[in-house]
Protein backbone atom coordinates (compact mmCIF):
# COMPACT_ATOMS: atom_id res chain seq x y z
CA UNK A 1 0.00 0.00 0.00
CA UNK A 2 1.34 3.41 -0.97
CA UNK A 3 1.39 5.53 2.21
CA UNK A 4 2.81 8.63 0.52
CA UNK A 5 3.55 9.99 -2.93
CA UNK A 6 7.12 8.67 -2.96
CA UNK A 7 5.72 5.16 -2.54
CA UNK A 8 3.06 5.89 -5.16
CA UNK A 9 5.78 6.94 -7.60
CA UNK A 10 7.60 3.67 -6.84
CA UNK A 11 4.37 1.83 -7.61
CA UNK A 12 4.22 3.58 -10.99
CA UNK A 13 7.61 2.10 -11.86
CA UNK A 14 6.10 -1.38 -11.44
CA UNK A 15 3.47 -0.64 -14.11
CA UNK A 16 3.98 -0.58 -17.85
CA UNK A 17 4.84 2.98 -18.91
CA UNK A 18 1.67 4.88 -19.75
CA UNK A 19 1.04 7.46 -22.46
CA UNK A 20 -0.52 10.83 -21.78
CA UNK A 21 -2.51 12.79 -24.36
CA UNK A 22 -2.25 16.54 -23.72
CA UNK A 23 -4.87 18.89 -25.16
CA UNK A 24 -3.51 22.35 -26.14
CA UNK A 25 -0.05 21.56 -24.81
CA UNK A 26 1.33 25.08 -25.44
CA UNK A 27 1.42 25.89 -21.72
CA UNK A 28 4.66 26.31 -19.79
CA UNK A 29 3.38 24.87 -16.48
CA UNK A 30 1.87 21.85 -18.22
CA UNK A 31 4.96 21.17 -20.34
CA UNK A 32 7.15 21.46 -17.26
CA UNK A 33 5.09 18.71 -15.61
CA UNK A 34 5.02 16.62 -18.79
CA UNK A 35 8.82 16.86 -19.02
CA UNK A 36 9.22 15.88 -15.34
CA UNK A 37 6.88 12.92 -15.80
CA UNK A 38 8.83 11.76 -18.84
CA UNK A 39 12.24 12.24 -17.20
CA UNK A 40 11.11 10.26 -14.12
CA UNK A 41 9.68 7.42 -16.19
CA UNK A 42 6.11 8.07 -15.08
CA UNK A 43 4.57 8.62 -18.51
CA UNK A 44 5.42 9.52 -22.08
CA UNK A 45 3.27 12.15 -23.77
CA UNK A 46 1.62 13.02 -27.06
CA UNK A 47 1.45 16.81 -27.33
CA UNK A 48 -1.52 18.17 -29.28
CA UNK A 49 -1.68 21.90 -29.95
CA UNK A 50 0.10 24.83 -31.57
CA UNK A 51 3.41 23.25 -32.58
CA UNK A 52 5.26 26.56 -32.96
CA UNK A 53 4.30 27.72 -29.48
CA UNK A 54 5.06 24.28 -28.02
CA UNK A 55 8.54 24.43 -29.57
CA UNK A 56 9.11 27.93 -28.20
CA UNK A 57 8.22 26.88 -24.65
CA UNK A 58 10.15 23.61 -24.95
CA UNK A 59 13.30 25.54 -25.85
CA UNK A 60 12.85 27.68 -22.76
CA UNK A 61 12.51 24.53 -20.62
CA UNK A 62 15.45 22.76 -22.32
CA UNK A 63 12.93 20.10 -23.34
CA UNK A 64 13.92 17.85 -26.24
CA UNK A 65 10.81 17.49 -28.43
CA UNK A 66 12.40 14.55 -30.22
CA UNK A 67 11.32 12.56 -27.15
CA UNK A 68 7.65 13.36 -27.80
CA UNK A 69 5.09 12.99 -30.54
CA UNK A 70 3.74 16.43 -31.44
CA UNK A 71 0.48 16.86 -33.37
CA UNK A 72 0.00 20.35 -34.75
CA UNK A 73 -3.59 21.52 -34.20
CA UNK A 74 -3.95 25.26 -33.63
CA UNK A 75 -7.71 25.48 -32.97
CA UNK A 76 -8.39 24.72 -29.29
CA UNK A 77 -11.66 22.84 -29.82
CA UNK A 78 -10.17 20.69 -32.56
CA UNK A 79 -7.04 20.11 -30.46
CA UNK A 80 -9.10 18.90 -27.51
CA UNK A 81 -11.08 16.49 -29.69
CA UNK A 82 -7.90 15.24 -31.37
CA UNK A 83 -6.25 14.60 -28.00
CA UNK A 84 -9.22 12.90 -26.34
CA UNK A 85 -9.68 10.67 -29.42
CA UNK A 86 -6.17 9.31 -28.84
CA UNK A 87 -7.34 8.00 -25.46
CA UNK A 88 -10.72 6.87 -26.83
CA UNK A 89 -8.92 4.86 -29.54
CA UNK A 90 -6.42 3.31 -27.11
CA UNK A 91 -3.41 5.21 -28.45
CA UNK A 92 -2.98 6.94 -25.09
CA UNK A 93 -3.95 5.92 -21.56
CA UNK A 94 -4.71 9.26 -19.87
CA UNK A 95 -5.99 12.71 -20.82
CA UNK A 96 -4.55 16.01 -19.53
CA UNK A 97 -5.91 19.56 -19.86
CA UNK A 98 -3.47 22.11 -21.25
CA UNK A 99 -4.06 25.71 -22.28
CA UNK A 100 -7.82 25.69 -22.83
CA UNK A 101 -10.84 26.54 -20.74
CA UNK A 102 -12.41 23.87 -18.53
CA UNK A 103 -15.76 24.01 -20.36
CA UNK A 104 -14.18 23.12 -23.71
CA UNK A 105 -12.05 20.43 -22.09
CA UNK A 106 -15.08 18.79 -20.44
CA UNK A 107 -17.07 18.98 -23.68
CA UNK A 108 -14.33 16.90 -25.30
CA UNK A 109 -14.43 14.40 -22.42
CA UNK A 110 -18.20 14.02 -22.91
CA UNK A 111 -18.17 14.01 -26.72
CA UNK A 112 -20.47 11.24 -27.93
CA UNK A 113 -18.19 10.09 -30.74
CA UNK A 114 -14.60 10.45 -29.52
CA UNK A 115 -14.92 11.23 -25.80
CA UNK A 116 -14.62 9.16 -22.64
CA UNK A 117 -18.19 9.24 -21.32
CA UNK A 118 -19.61 6.17 -19.56
CA UNK A 119 -23.15 7.37 -18.93
CA UNK A 120 -22.37 7.79 -15.24
CA UNK A 121 -21.79 11.05 -13.34
CA UNK A 122 -18.30 12.54 -13.38
CA UNK A 123 -16.67 13.11 -10.01
CA UNK A 124 -13.42 14.54 -8.67
CA UNK A 125 -11.01 12.63 -6.43
CA UNK A 126 -8.18 14.37 -4.60
CA UNK A 127 -5.41 12.40 -2.88
CA UNK A 128 -3.47 14.00 -0.02
CA UNK A 129 -0.28 13.18 1.84
CA UNK A 130 -0.57 15.08 5.12
CA UNK A 131 2.04 15.20 7.92
CA UNK A 132 0.86 13.32 11.01
CA UNK A 133 -1.44 10.98 9.06
CA UNK A 134 0.19 7.65 8.29
CA UNK A 135 -1.62 6.99 5.02
CA UNK A 136 -2.85 8.70 1.88
CA UNK A 137 -6.26 10.34 2.21
CA UNK A 138 -8.76 10.26 -0.64
CA UNK A 139 -11.25 13.15 -0.75
CA UNK A 140 -14.43 13.32 -2.83
CA UNK A 141 -16.01 15.47 -4.19
CA UNK A 142 -14.26 18.81 -3.68
CA UNK A 143 -14.63 20.34 -7.14
CA UNK A 144 -17.26 18.86 -9.41
CA UNK A 145 -20.67 17.74 -8.08
CA UNK A 146 -22.27 20.70 -6.23
CA UNK A 147 -25.01 18.90 -4.29
CA UNK A 148 -24.60 15.13 -4.68
CA UNK A 149 -27.72 12.97 -4.37
CA UNK A 150 -27.63 9.61 -2.61
CA UNK A 151 -27.12 7.96 -6.01
CA UNK A 152 -24.27 10.37 -6.77
CA UNK A 153 -22.62 9.51 -3.45
CA UNK A 154 -22.78 5.80 -4.30
CA UNK A 155 -20.94 6.59 -7.56
CA UNK A 156 -18.46 8.82 -5.72
CA UNK A 157 -17.66 6.03 -3.25
CA UNK A 158 -17.31 3.40 -5.99
CA UNK A 159 -14.99 5.60 -8.05
CA UNK A 160 -12.84 6.54 -5.07
CA UNK A 161 -12.61 2.94 -3.88
CA UNK A 162 -11.22 2.07 -7.33
CA UNK A 163 -8.63 4.84 -7.02
CA UNK A 164 -7.67 3.75 -3.48
CA UNK A 165 -7.37 0.11 -4.53
CA UNK A 166 -5.14 1.14 -7.45
CA UNK A 167 -2.91 2.80 -4.85
CA UNK A 168 -2.75 -0.47 -2.90
CA UNK A 169 -5.49 0.01 -0.28
CA UNK A 170 -7.15 -3.43 -0.32
CA UNK A 171 -10.30 -2.60 1.64
CA UNK A 172 -10.65 1.18 1.95
CA UNK A 173 -12.49 2.59 4.96
CA UNK A 174 -15.04 5.18 3.89
CA UNK A 175 -16.40 7.99 6.07
CA UNK A 176 -19.49 9.85 4.77
CA UNK A 177 -18.96 13.10 6.64
CA UNK A 178 -21.40 15.33 8.51
CA UNK A 179 -21.24 17.90 11.29
CA UNK A 180 -22.27 15.19 13.78
CA UNK A 181 -21.82 11.47 14.12
CA UNK A 182 -25.44 10.59 14.89
CA UNK A 183 -28.47 10.48 12.62
CA UNK A 184 -30.66 13.57 12.88
CA UNK A 185 -33.81 13.52 10.70
CA UNK A 186 -33.54 17.31 10.38
CA UNK A 187 -30.05 16.94 8.87
CA UNK A 188 -30.52 15.13 5.55
CA UNK A 189 -26.81 14.43 5.09
CA UNK A 190 -26.78 12.32 8.26
CA UNK A 191 -29.74 10.31 7.01
CA UNK A 192 -28.02 9.68 3.67
CA UNK A 193 -24.75 8.77 5.41
CA UNK A 194 -26.60 6.12 7.44
CA UNK A 195 -28.26 4.86 4.25
CA UNK A 196 -24.86 4.48 2.56
CA UNK A 197 -23.71 2.46 5.56
CA UNK A 198 -26.73 0.15 5.25
CA UNK A 199 -26.13 -0.27 1.52
CA UNK A 200 -22.55 -1.31 2.26
CA UNK A 201 -23.69 -3.80 4.90
CA UNK A 202 -26.20 -5.24 2.40
CA UNK A 203 -23.48 -5.69 -0.22
CA UNK A 204 -24.80 -2.98 -2.52
CA UNK A 205 -21.57 -0.99 -2.11
CA UNK A 206 -18.66 -3.41 -2.34
CA UNK A 207 -14.94 -3.74 -1.65
CA UNK A 208 -14.87 -1.24 1.21
CA UNK A 209 -16.15 -0.50 4.72
CA UNK A 210 -18.59 2.40 4.97
CA UNK A 211 -19.46 3.97 8.33
CA UNK A 212 -21.44 7.17 8.59
CA UNK A 213 -22.35 9.71 9.55
CA UNK A 214 -19.02 10.67 11.07
CA UNK A 215 -17.57 14.03 11.97
CA UNK A 216 -14.19 14.80 10.44
CA UNK A 217 -12.25 14.55 13.70
CA UNK A 218 -13.67 11.13 14.56
CA UNK A 219 -13.00 9.85 11.04
CA UNK A 220 -9.32 10.79 11.22
CA UNK A 221 -8.22 10.66 14.85
CA UNK A 222 -8.68 7.87 17.39
CA UNK A 223 -8.13 10.36 20.22
CA UNK A 224 -11.21 12.28 19.11
CA UNK A 225 -13.18 9.07 18.76
CA UNK A 226 -12.18 8.04 22.28
CA UNK A 227 -13.14 11.42 23.74
CA UNK A 228 -16.56 11.21 22.09
CA UNK A 229 -17.15 7.55 22.95
CA UNK A 230 -17.02 6.50 19.30
CA UNK A 231 -14.14 4.01 19.31
CA UNK A 232 -16.59 1.24 18.47
CA UNK A 233 -17.33 2.77 15.08
CA UNK A 234 -15.90 0.72 12.20
CA UNK A 235 -13.99 3.58 10.61
CA UNK A 236 -13.15 5.73 13.65
CA UNK A 237 -9.62 7.10 13.36
CA UNK A 238 -8.85 5.00 10.29
CA UNK A 239 -10.73 6.57 7.38
CA UNK A 240 -9.05 6.30 4.00
CA UNK A 241 -11.84 7.98 2.03
CA UNK A 242 -13.68 11.14 3.09
CA UNK A 243 -17.03 11.69 1.34
CA UNK A 244 -18.23 15.28 1.63
CA UNK A 245 -21.93 16.17 1.81
CA UNK A 246 -21.58 18.94 -0.79
CA UNK A 247 -19.01 20.90 -2.78
CA UNK A 248 -18.87 23.70 -0.21
CA UNK A 249 -17.68 21.44 2.60
CA UNK A 250 -15.27 19.59 0.32
CA UNK A 251 -13.80 22.67 -1.29
CA UNK A 252 -13.34 24.50 2.02
CA UNK A 253 -11.48 21.52 3.52
CA UNK A 254 -9.44 21.06 0.35
CA UNK A 255 -8.31 24.70 0.24
CA UNK A 256 -7.66 24.78 3.97
CA UNK A 257 -5.28 21.85 3.64
CA UNK A 258 -3.57 23.16 0.49
CA UNK A 259 -2.98 26.67 1.82
CA UNK A 260 -2.40 25.99 5.52
CA UNK A 261 -0.61 22.61 5.64
CA UNK A 262 2.74 21.47 4.24
CA UNK A 263 1.24 18.66 2.19
CA UNK A 264 1.41 16.90 -1.17
CA UNK A 265 -1.56 16.15 -3.37
CA UNK A 266 -2.77 14.94 -6.75
CA UNK A 267 -6.17 15.00 -8.44
CA UNK A 268 -8.07 13.13 -11.13
CA UNK A 269 -11.53 13.17 -12.66
CA UNK A 270 -13.37 9.83 -12.43
CA UNK A 271 -16.46 8.29 -13.98
CA UNK A 272 -14.72 8.21 -17.38
CA UNK A 273 -13.42 5.38 -19.58
CA UNK A 274 -9.84 6.39 -18.72
CA UNK A 275 -8.28 8.72 -16.13
CA UNK A 276 -8.70 12.43 -16.83
CA UNK A 277 -6.36 14.97 -15.23
CA UNK A 278 -8.05 18.30 -14.60
CA UNK A 279 -5.67 20.43 -12.57
CA UNK A 280 -5.85 24.15 -11.86
CA UNK A 281 -3.51 26.67 -13.48
CA UNK A 282 -2.50 27.64 -9.94
CA UNK A 283 -1.39 24.08 -9.11
CA UNK A 284 2.35 23.57 -8.76
CA UNK A 285 4.42 21.36 -11.04
CA UNK A 286 4.61 18.84 -8.19
CA UNK A 287 0.81 18.63 -7.99
CA UNK A 288 0.58 18.09 -11.75
CA UNK A 289 3.25 15.38 -11.68
CA UNK A 290 1.57 13.70 -8.70
CA UNK A 291 -1.71 13.80 -10.61
CA UNK A 292 -0.10 12.18 -13.65
CA UNK A 293 1.38 9.46 -11.41
CA UNK A 294 -2.01 8.89 -9.77
CA UNK A 295 -3.67 8.63 -13.19
CA UNK A 296 -0.99 6.15 -14.31
CA UNK A 297 -1.65 3.66 -11.51
CA UNK A 298 -5.42 4.05 -11.98
CA UNK A 299 -5.04 3.50 -15.73
CA UNK A 300 -2.98 0.38 -15.06
CA UNK A 301 -5.66 -0.99 -12.71
CA UNK A 302 -8.45 -0.19 -15.19
CA UNK A 303 -6.59 -2.02 -17.94
CA UNK A 304 -6.15 -5.06 -15.70
CA UNK A 305 -9.88 -5.06 -14.95
CA UNK A 306 -10.68 -4.98 -18.68
> Which descriptor suits the 3D outline?
elongated
Helix content: 40-55%
Poorly predicted regions are none
Return the string of H and E elements.
HEHEHEHEHEEHEHEHHEHEEH
CATH topology value of the largest domain: Rossmann fold
CATH class of the largest domain: Alpha Beta
Protein architecture, described:
By secondary structure, the protein is of the alpha/beta class. It has two domains: 5-117 and 272-300, Rossmann fold (3-Layer(aba) Sandwich); 125-260, Isopropylmalate Dehydrogenase (3-Layer(aba) Sandwich). The chain is 42% helix and 16% strand. It has a six-stranded mixed sheet, sandwiched between helices. Helix 1 (5-13) crosses helix 11, helix 2 (28-39) packs across helix 11 and helix 4 packs parallel to helix 5 (102-109).
Key traits:
single chain; 306 residues; alpha/beta; Rossmann fold; Isopropylmalate Dehydrogenase; 2 domains; 6-stranded mixed beta sheet; 5-stranded parallel beta sheet; 11 helices; 11 strands
Helices and strands in order, then pairings?
Blueprint: H1 5-13, E1 18-23, H2 28-39, E2 43-49, H3 51-60, E3 69-72, H4 76-88, E4 94-97, H5 102-109, E5 123-129, E6 137-140, H6 150-166, E7 173-176, H7 188-201, E8 209-210, H8 216-220, H9 222-227, E9 241-243, H10 247-260, E10 264-270, E11 276-277, H11 285-305
Helix pairs in contact: 1-11, 2-11, 4-5, 6-11
Amino acid sequence: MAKNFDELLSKVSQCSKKTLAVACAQDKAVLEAVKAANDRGIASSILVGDEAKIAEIAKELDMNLADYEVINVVDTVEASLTAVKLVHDGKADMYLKGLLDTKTFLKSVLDKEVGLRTGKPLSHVCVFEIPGIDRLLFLTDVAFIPYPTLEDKVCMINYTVEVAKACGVDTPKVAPLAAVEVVNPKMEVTVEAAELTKMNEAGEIKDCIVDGPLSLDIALYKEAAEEKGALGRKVAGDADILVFPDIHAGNLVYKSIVHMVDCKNGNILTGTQAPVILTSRSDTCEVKVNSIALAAVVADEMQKMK
